[in-house]
Design brief:
By secondary structure, this protein is of the alpha+beta class. Helix 42 (979-987) packs across helix 44 (1043-1064). It is elongated, with a radius of gyration of 36 Å. The chain has 47 helices and 20 strands. 52% of the residues are buried. The chain has a seven-stranded mixed beta sheet. Strands 3-5-6-8-12-11 form a six-stranded mixed beta sheet, with helices on one face. A five-stranded antiparallel beta sheet has the order 4-7-13-9-10. The longest helix has 22 residues, at 1043-1064. Bound molecules: zinc ion. Zinc ion binds at residues 843, 846, 940, 1129. Keywords: Carboxypeptidase, Cytoplasm, Hydrolase, Metal-binding, Metalloprotease, Nucleus, Protease, Zinc. Residues 352-374, 1098-1121 have a biased composition (Acidic residues). Residues 772-1061 form the Peptidase M14 domain.
């Protein structure tokens, strides 16, 4: 094009032109301007072009004059353009001064000649194709003045005239971004016309073919046009194959991509996908893509093919009878509204796994296209920030009368203790432990202590739970010879292992040793146990490394833990304990093309159905689970505390699809997992796919690995969870998610988390988990061991705050220092210590929160001088596990009421949310007696961000974010809420101040942090979030987080409190202004661009991958926008796309 234009030289007016022609005079002026190109005054150019345009519009004679043979009018225009294009912005000047208008008028004029001059049309279209893109309104202008129709007619009449077709097609392309034009052209038969131009494979006229394909692709973005093209899908596939076969030197990648572009748009509609499948499109694109794989330059073809195949992949049904949790807990009172009520009211026999009809699919296709464009701006708004200033101010009225709160007095004995001699001794030696659960006026309505699992009303009874093994018969012997080895008798090979081993092991190693591997086993053991007697199974001695762990005590604790499935087994990792490995575990670097490879393997299921085994090897929904299998399959199990595997299906020899159970009394929340695998082959490349994940992205895409625990490693002296797995990725899959499970949205899919793994040991039993498990029984064990650490100087009291719905008790700890003496002064100091209130693990899937809490508790109970000072400085009230039932039953997010407990703080129900109700009551009691805590902090885990950080509450910072600047200057707020996070950022390596936020969001108004801030009046009310993945700053940059780092964080939190104490003492107040310099913090943060101080902006601020990763084959859905799946303290930006928002708000 440009070559064509620039070949024209500026011409003088031909001598034959009569000098009285006005238009030619104007052209003369225009030409003169061209010669003085550098000095053109745009205003003069505008005046001239406006005059020319006016003449053309009003005088037929003038039009003829310009386009007639021998006139140089056209040439002057072209010359103007030519000069303009050299002058850079000048095309823009010409365009904006009405140049396109002149040209379009000329097209109309030229079309009135009969026959129209081919040469003129060619020239005009060439110029239009060049000028058009500079004029945003070009498409609309061309349609309105009729030039678009002229072009279409010209195309229709010149199908063989390649020279003319090319510029005409280019003009169409310029007009196509307008949806109205696309539809109108479609009506005018242009889609069919394109298919006439796009012939079979030929290396002639490749540039025309390319332009035709691009034009067609643009036309097909319209749904109605796509419908017109459905019949041509086989042709497009055929041409694509031809090009694939013949373009061996890959010189025509753009043509091949153009064909795929057309297919991609046609398959946006349901009919198109059907046509694609019927035409064997899956196989064709699969085969061609596989052949393209070795050539990196063909990646765009593979990626587009993969996108089309994923879109067309028939949606499968999740292999389940219902998505409701396998286990049910009958609630005595069902919450009036919301998801749980919905679940209970679900009609009998209703299929909740897939939607009945998929009529919405086409609407979905339309949405896809919108999403493609609008996706990036999706979250630019900040509509989650609380803007109602009244909701940001302290709640004035205390809703509960003091009389009602008075019963909580007994949890605060330390506030009234007078340590009289008798009692003092008593306290000294026997810090009492109250096991009476609190009884409140509403307690009559509390469920019985040990409710049995019962099916939901009006529903087929689900299979009876596995009968509980009698835990009392567990008899694990420890040898007493002083070497500390815990040993078990190992029976002779071939003997009935289940009978001889303690029952607790029957579901673990023992059950598996009875299989085909028996004879080899004997040799293995003989090798391993060189010096020991035959038949002794060593249990790792972790006593020295793990002072808080004791296997026997753990089993004791398990016996008093109530689970809905009535778990009778103990997982080995929980039994043996975990010693953090000393080696560094780096954040995994993502290998190029992983996702693509995995998706292609998924597509192969469809292409080669005969290779698929589809063999169920574990299924909690059937009576006989676990499925017994003597063959080549892995064995799965997760019927132990916190376990939640529902089903395992062997797909290929070494590949398994795994389905997670929903939270109890819910039909979703799948993220946490914990299960056992055995029967593996050493060195075989296993692939595991968890196929019913729900979040739209995951840290598994950013270097996080799964955790694995090998029993063989443990008994060889390395009892530990290790980060493991390769080829890890997380992507949208082809299992459809019913609207019931997707918050009412239709056409959604689940996500797959996949990882590969080779096992190192024969006859091993391995466990996989989302994060380091920490069970309720583990907590109870740790608490008992901690109590043993107590020195006479330590005041430790363990109360039972309440019973949970599942019949487990919720411990409340009080830790402080004993008074130095019973003198009045000392007692006074003791009673008047400020309170620090900590809680953790309201969300069962966030096990990291428990490890941080463990670090805190161990530090607080420790013997260091710092710990002692800390105890002297504060009274600690700690609820270490706010949701024991959720933890026990392997839930990810909810309690047995099927609700997120961290959304109940505004109005907790004593019957449905007892732990929240009573914890809040404790705080209300404290507020009522003017002893509200100095610090409240609820420990959480964050699934999508790195580092450890805090969310706090600030009226002023919230108002800043909402840009209501008028009111913000009148607000006065103590900046003390920033001190603690600032201290932490200076001393805790994993902690990142830049990730902290103090903005109050609407979606968080019922969380502990916001309610304690607003209703209890605690200025320093926080959520502390620990990453599940790792750190991207500080000492641990590039490393995945482990229990050592998490525990360290918990300890550092304590040290920070001590520093806070010093800073907040009246004498020191003036010296820590630097810690409170909010504005410089904010500026620093914003300048760095690493993040901004608001939670909803911080989500998933991950750089994009080098591999173009597409999670959502069809639509950019954001499940977090739907209230059912919203992650309360996670925030609401979804994925990798979020970089823009930062820019838009900073
Ligand atoms: Zn949480």
């Amino acid at each position: 094009m440009s070559g064509y234009v620039s070949s024209i030289k500026p011409l003088s007016l031909p001598p034959s032109v009569p000098s009285n022609s006005r238009v030619l005079m104007l052209f003369g002026q225009l030409e003169k301007l061209n010669r003085e190109s550098m000095l053109v005054d745009p205003e003069i150019a505008r005046q001239i072009t406006a005059k020319i345009l006016h003449l053309i519009q009003t005088q037929e004679k003038t039009r003829k004059e310009i386009v007639s043979k021998g006139s140089s009018g056209m040439e002057v225009i072209l010359a103007t353009l030519e000069v303009s294009s050299r002058g850079g912005r000048r095309i823009g000047v010409f365009v904006s001064k009405g140049g396109t208008g002149i040209l379009l008028q000329l097209v109309i004029s030229a079309s009135k000649e009969s026959p129209p001059s081919e040469e003129v049309m060619l020239q005009l279209h060439s110029v239009l194709a060049k000028v058009g893109p500079k004029d945003r309104k070009f498409g609309v202008k061309a349609r309105l003045n009729g030039a678009l129709n002229v072009t279409v007619n010209l195309l229709k009449q010149n199908l063989q005239n390649y020279k003319l077709l090319l510029p005409c097609l280019l003009v169409l392309q310029v007009c196509l971004p307008s949806a109205v034009n696309a539809v109108s052209l479609g009506k005018n038969g242009v889609v069919e016309l394109m298919f006439k131009i796009i012939g079979p494979y030929s290396k002639k006229n490749t540039s025309l073919l390319k332009v035709s394909l691009d034009t067609l692709g643009a036309l097909l973005k319209s749904k109605t046009n796509a419908q017109r093209a459905v019949v041509h899908v086989p042709i497009l596939l055929h041409i694509y194959q031809d090009w694939h076969r013949n373009d061996t030197r890959h010189r025509h990648i753009l043509i091949r991509k153009g064909i795929l572009g057309c297919l991609k748009n046609i398959t946006n509609i349901k009919l198109g996908r059907k046509a694609f499948i019927d035409a064997d499109g899956m196989r064709i694109l699969y085969n061609t893509s596989t052949e393209c794989l070795p050539v990196r330059t063909l990646d765009p073809l593979i990626n587009t093919s993969s996108l089309i195949m994923r879109k067309c992949f028939p949606k499968n049904r999740l292999p389940l009878p219902t998505i409701k949790s396998v286990f049910h807990h009958q609630l005595l009172r069902v919450p009036a509204g919301g998801p749980v009520a919905q679940l209970y009211n679900q009609p009998l026999g209703m299929d909740d796994v897939v939607d009945e009809s998929d009529n919405n699919e086409d609407a979905e296709a339309e949405n896809d296209m919108e999403n493609e464009v609008e996706e990036k701006d999706h979250h630019a708004g900040n509509d989650d920030i609380e803007t109602d200033i009244n909701k940001l101010r302290p709640k004035e009225t205390h809703s509960r009368p003091f009389e009602e709160l008075k019963i909580y007095e007994r949890f605060f004995m330390e506030l009234s203790e007078d340590f009289q001699v008798m009692q003092y001794t008593f306290w000294f030696n026997n810090t009492p432990k109250s096991h009476r659960p609190i009884v409140v006026p509403t307690a009559q309505a509390l469920p019985p202590k040990n409710p049995t699992a019962a099916p939901l009303q009006g529903e087929c009874p689900h299979p009876a739970p596995v009968p509980a093994l009698d835990l009392d018969t567990i008899n694990i012997t420890k040898d007493q010879d002083g070497c500390g080895d815990h040993t078990h008798s190992r029976p002779h090979p071939g003997a009935g292992l289940e009978q001889e081993l303690p029952p607790i092991l029957a579901g673990g190693v023992a059950a598996r040793l009875g299989g085909e591997g028996e004879e080899m086993l004997a040799e293995d053991w003989a090798e391993e146990e060189e010096s020991s007697e035959e038949g002794v199974l060593h249990v790792p001695d972790t006593a020295l490394l793990l002072p808080l762990h004791d296997p026997d005590l753990y089993v004791e604790m398990v016996k008093s833990t109530s689970s809905v499935p009535q778990f009778s087994e103990v997982a080995y990792p929980d039994y043996f304990g975990h010693v953090a490995p000393t080696s560094r575990e780096h954040i995994l670097e993502r290998v190029y093309g992983v996702q693509r490879t995995k998706i292609f393997q998924d597509i192969e299921r469809l292409i080669h159905p005969n290779d698929i085994l589809d063999k169920v090897v574990y299924d909690l929904d059937i009576q006989s689970c676990p499925v017994v299998d003597g063959g080549e399959s892995l064995k799965f199990n997760s019927q132990f505390e916190s376990g939640n595997l529902r089903k395992a299906v062997q797909i290929r020899k070494f590949e398994y699809d795994l389905v997670l159970n929903s939270d109890i009394n819910s039909n979703h929340y799948h993220q946490w997992f914990y299960f056992e695998v055995s029967g593996m082959r050493v060195g075989a490349p296993y692939r595991f796919n968890i196929i019913n994940c729900e979040k739209s992205n995951s840290q598994f895409n950013y270097g996080m690995q799964v955790l694995m625990y090998s029993v063989q490693e443990a008994i060889s002296g390395r009892p530990r969870w290790v980060r493991t797995g390769t080829d890890i990725c997380y992507y949208k899959n082809h299992f459809s998610r019913s609207s019931i499970a997707a918050g009412g949205q239709k056409g959604k899919s689940y996500y797959t988390m996949t990882f590969s793994m080779t096992f190192n040991h024969k006859d091993d039993v391995c466990y996989f988990a989302y994060h380091y498990p920490y069970t309720y029984s583990t907590l109870k064990m740790h608490l008992q061991k901690l109590e043993a650490l107590r020195t006479p100087q330590t005041y430790l009291r363990e109360d039972i705050l309440c019973e949970t719905l599942g019949g487990n008790s919720c411990p409340l700890l009080t830790i402080t220092a004993m008074p130095e003496s019973t003198s009045n002064d000392q007692i006074c100091q003791f009673r008047n210590r400020p309170l620090v209130f900590l809680s953790s693990r309201v969300h069962p899937g966030e096990t990291n929160a428990s490890w941080v809490m463990k670090g805190t508790l161990e530090f607080l109970m420790g013997s260091s001088p710092l710990a002692h000072s800390l105890r002297e400085a504060y009274i600690f009230k700690i609820v270490p596990m706010l949701n024991p039932d959720g933890v026990v039953n392997g839930n990810h997010r909810c309690s047995l009421s099927g609700e997120d407990l961290n959304r109940q703080w505004q109005n907790p129900s004593p019957e449905l949310h007892p732990t929240i109700y009573h914890t809040k009551s404790l705080l209300q009691y404290l507020a009522a007696i003017q002893r509200a805590p100095l610090v409240f902090c609820d420990y959480h885990g964050h699934s999508r961000k790195k580092n450890v950080f805090m969310y706090g509450c600030s009226l002023k910072e919230t108002v800043w974010e909402t840009n209501i600047s008028a009111t913000s200057c009148e607000l006065h707020e103590d900046l003390g809420y920033r001190t603690l996070p600032k201290i932490l950022s200076q001393m805790a390596p994993a902690f990142s101040m830049a990730s902290c936020s103090f903005v109050v969001e609407r979606s968080k108004e019922a969380t502990a942090r916001v309610v304690v801030w607003r209703e209890i009046g605690v200025q320093r009310s926080y959520t502390m979030e620990s990453t599940l993945c790792g750190c991207d700053q500080g000492k641990y940059k590039g490393l995945q987080i482990g229990t050592r780092e998490l525990e360290e964080m918990g300890a550092q939190f304590c040290v920070a409190l001590l520093r806070l104490k010093r800073l907040t003492s009246p004498l020191k107040l003036r010296n820590h202004a630097h810690l409170l310099d909010v504005e410089s913090d904010l500026t620093e943060t914003r300048c760095k661009g690493s993040s901004t101080p608001s939670t909803y902006l911080l989500e998933d601020e991950e750089a994009s991958f080098m591999e173009e990763v597409d999670y959502s084959a069809e639509s950019g859905d954001e499940p977090d926008n739907d209230p059912n799946t919203a992650d309360p303290h996670d925030n609401h930006l979804s994925d990798s796309e979020s970089n823009n928002h930062r820019d838009s708000l900073t």
